[in-house]
Fold each of these.
Amino acid sequence: MVFNAVAEYYHNISLLGETTTTDIISIVLILLGAFIIIRIVKNRLKRSFGDQLPKSDLDFVMTLSTYLIYLITILLLLPYLHFDLSGLFVAGGIVALALAFATQNIVSNLVSGLFLMFERPIKIGDNVTIGSLTGTVQNIQIMSTIVRTYDGIFVRIPNSKMFTSDITNLVAHPARRFEYTVGIRYQDDAAKAIALIKNLIDRQPYALKSPGPSVYVDKLDDSSVNIVVKVWAPSLFWWDLRTALLWKIKVELEKNGIQIPFPQRELWFDNTLKTDMKTVQPPPIREVPYQEADDHLEVGKPRPGETHDW
């Protein structure tokens, strides 16, 4: 009985106004839990994004996460400090509404950047197409992404636009295919041309064997037999092979007597349309007699007694 009375007495002791010993213990436990959560969140962020983000952006994300945990911790501590939260919530709601309107674009970019970091559709060094823009990713920041076009122009794209745009990663797959259309003359041997092209592709070190190339006659055009050439190459060497192979195909075909024709047209005339140009007589030439000019005649002035109707 005495022990219970003492415990009840110390339980009801008010140390800070209405704050009791139980409130103090709860506050200490909440603060310890907050510090532990902050350390765990920072370690997870370093492991997940340490090699994906610059150090400045990673520090910004960790600082933002720490502030959010602090804010949640303060909201959890307020009931144990016996604050009247009704007025605080009303004022906080008004401030939050004003901030939401003022910073909606910033918040949109920030949230989109976090989603992009977790989803990871691209990484630094990837060749990508975003809408109508094609280039190499230079930097992925918390608010925006920097892309360098193939012309050397740096473009900053807000992450909100990145998140809502179609992103095509040109190097995410280890292999990529390209194709040509090569036209030869009708009198040339198409089977020989296909064999020459296949043999040339087999000698290219970056042309993949699996999936292998495909070479076939695709269309009989107006002035040529069109051969389609499809080749797979590693994504890192795709462009180099594509730009070099086409000229090698042209040289190889011409070396073996196979020509790439120019556009040609054949015109047929009916015999009734033929005209003997010798029977065509030019129109007669009318000669104008020569007249000497009057030196005393003043141009533009009427002669004495000369009248006009205008």
Amino acid sequence: MLSIAVVEDNDDLRAAILNALRGEGHHVVGFDCAEALAEQGRTLRIDLVVVDLNLPGEDGISLARRLRATEPEIGIIMMTARTRTDDKRIGYESGADIYLAKPVSLEELAAAILALSRRLRPAPAAPTGLVVDTGRLTLGGPSGVTHLSASEAALLAAFARAQDHRLETWQIIEVLEQVDRALNRNALNVTVSRLSTKLRQSGTAPRPIRAIRNWGYQLCEPVRLT
């Protein structure tokens, strides 16, 4: 959803645009001139302005230049009957993102706003690395979600909190004994091996856990706890 200002002096057209864009789920306010936007819109957070060029008082070209200078990230869609190449060039040079020639269908305007919204509200970036949910006992990675045992989740959480993701053997034993009091050295090795397999299944490099001879282990992947 975007916050949109429509600056159009034709009352019927402005009302039709407002109704259509509200139906698309946007928050929309209308103004009949540039001066009204300047006076009433200063307290609003506006993502995008739909502006007619032939306005009473300050025209749409001047308004676009002023908006682009003061709010560089704002979206600007111009609607006008001026269709010559020079007119379009001036419109874009004045700050327009999209220049639509009237008559503009409401469907075309909605499509232009959708296209521009990808710049104004880009999709959030996918989280990188591994995500461990210690409550649900799951491991999320580039290849999907894998279920963990309580011991595996506890060990991953310990690696995530450790400096350089390194744990000495005695530290690993302490972590695992909190889950399984019957732990022995073989069980430790089995847990590390199974955890390495699940890390690879989640999309990590071939050796997600590296053994440090006569010392312990290091997790070689970034990990985030939830």
